[in-house]
Design goal:
The chain is an alpha+beta fold and 157 residues long. The chain has 5 helices and 6 strands; from the N terminus they run ββαββαβααβα. The strands form 3 sheets. Strands 1-2 form a two-stranded antiparallel sheet. Strands 3-4 form a two-stranded antiparallel sheet.
């Protein structure tokens, strides 16, 4: 497991901390059969603590999100189940604040570690976006993607 020696913790933001083959296979299983089992992680203890079953109907659009989503873009494209891939990003300061608030709320790690980790990720964000695009995702801002995906006003009646 990769470590962030500067922070003294497992580096959960490094692709080697994640099983891309298993994730890709799980997404294919979900699309092909309508169900799959995925691990549930406890970041505060740096381990999986169980599993949950995900289900999808045949016409559902399955959205895989997170820092490693782009790691499976190529394999999902080869499997014929990729709709599109985006790296939705905000101003790095916005991402920093949102991440810190979430991580503090969920008690993911001690506050000092979260602050140091957040600052390191803030500095690394441009490289993270470059890596995602190199893996096949298209970098977009949230509002741009919302406009692009908008189908216009909906009427009821």
């Amino acid at each position: 497991m990769p470590r962030r020696e500067d922070l003294g913790i497992v580096d959960w933001d490094h692709p080697a901390s994640w099983d891309a083959d298993r994730a890709g296979a799980s997404l294919c299983e979900l699309v092909d059969t309508g169900r799959t089992r995925t691990p549930v992680y406890d970041i505060s203890t740096s381990r999986a603590v169980g599993h949950r079953e995900l289900t999808a109907r045949p016409d559902d659009l399955v959205l895989a999100e997170g820092i490693f989503a782009a790691e499976v873009v190529e394999r999902l494209g080869v499997a014929g189940i990729l709709h599109s891939a985006w790296c939705v990003h905000h101003h790095p300061a916005v991402t920093f604040v949102r991440r810190l608030v979430r991580d503090l709320r969920e008690h993911r790690k001690p506050p000092g570690v979260l602050l140091r980790r957040g600052m390191a990720l803030l500095r690394a964000e441009p490289e993270i976006v470059r890596r995602q695009t190199a893996l096949g995702a298209r970098a977009v801002r949230a509002r741009e993607l919302e406009r692009e995906l908008s189908v216009g006003p909906r009427t009821v009646g």
